[in-house]
Amino acid sequence: MSAQQSSFASTIDSLRERVPEGLIHPKVGIVCGSGLSTLGSTLRDRVLVDYDTLPGFAKSTVAGHKSQLAFGYLGPEDKGVPVVAMLGRFHPYEGHTMASVVYPIRVMAKLGVTHIIITNAAGGLNPNLAVGTIVVIQDHIALPNLTGFNPLIGAQTDLSLPRFLPLSNAYSRPLRKLVFHAAHQLGLEKSALAEGTYAWVSGPTYETPAEGRFLRAAGGDVVGMSTIPEVLAAREMGVEVTVLSLVTNAVVIPDTYNSIREEVEAELAGKPLPAAVDAIVSHEEVLTIGKQKAEVMRQLVEKTVELIGSA
Ligand code: HPA
Question: What is the Cα–Cα distance from 133 to 290, expressed in whole angstroms?
Fold first, then answer.
């Protein structure tokens, strides 16, 4: 057995000691992003496992992110779907290796999940996306993947997995359909849910205005610092994936004017221009919007799980 395989075996042994038989093979995996972990509280027969008590797991270090796996049932009592939710995730910008970032996803797949629903907080690149909109991701642009930092780079330790993974079908159409059916059943307004492309950046800095315009011009609708490694690992292991991004802030704002020369010339001519306002995003703002919309996200995820269970 390779070192990696024995690490997975000890993680799963440790989970077996704590999670009852009915929950140890969940059907759906869920990843909860910034401020979106309230889902953990609505699981029935919930069992919480701290990451730092699990062999093989790293420790999450971002404020606003918890660090637990939550096992439990979602949906109606008679048709409860066993799920495992990550309350808090690992990001490459924390200094974690890509292998650590995707480790929990691989564990979920090894436990037998067939579907993973990934949530995240993201910046809006598309000016039509209001803050608070949930975007069902249909595609991605991952500059790190294109420039030598693909999370799947490395010797193949499991020869049963594909070496050259296609990504044209990364975002499951049937699952995206279920999300829209779920939104309909919940009576969400049309504007609450959009579709779009996720641009992945490494962070931890937010984008400059020019970087925001660049990613928008490249076709991104939202931008974020997570998710794509998780999508790749899940797809590599044959799991169906859907991603829901909550727009927490606008990255590309309409230019007022950028020219300091114009501003100074206007001042000298005694006709000062209105001062341009810099839009400065903060992690607190991201968490606040996350908290405000956590309930809608929770309902949407829960209803989607229910539909997966009865599909
Ligand atoms: N950029 C990158 N990641 C983010 C942002 C952003 O503006 N907002 C929330 N996550």
Answer: 11
How far is CA 236 from each of CA 90, 169, 172, rounded to the nearest angstrom? 19, 12, 14
302 is catalytic: no
Q: CA angle, 243 as apex, 121 and 96 as ends, to 5°?
A: 65
- Residue position matching structure tokens 């779907």: 81
ipTM over 0.95: yes
- Ligand 1: residue whose CA is nearest its atom 10: 122
- Which protein residue has the closest C-alpha to ligand 1 atom 2? 224
Q: Tell me the one-letter amino acid at 216.
A: R
Q: Which atom of ligand 1 is nearest to the CA of 207?
A: 1
Strand partners, 84: 29, 71
Active site residue 34: yes
Closest CA to 199 of 188, 214, 186: 214
- All structural domains of the chain, each given as residue ranges with its CATH number in brackets, are 3-310 (3.40.50.1580)
pLDDT for residue 35 is more than 80: no
- Measure the CA–CA gap between 243 and 224, rounded to whole angstroms: 12
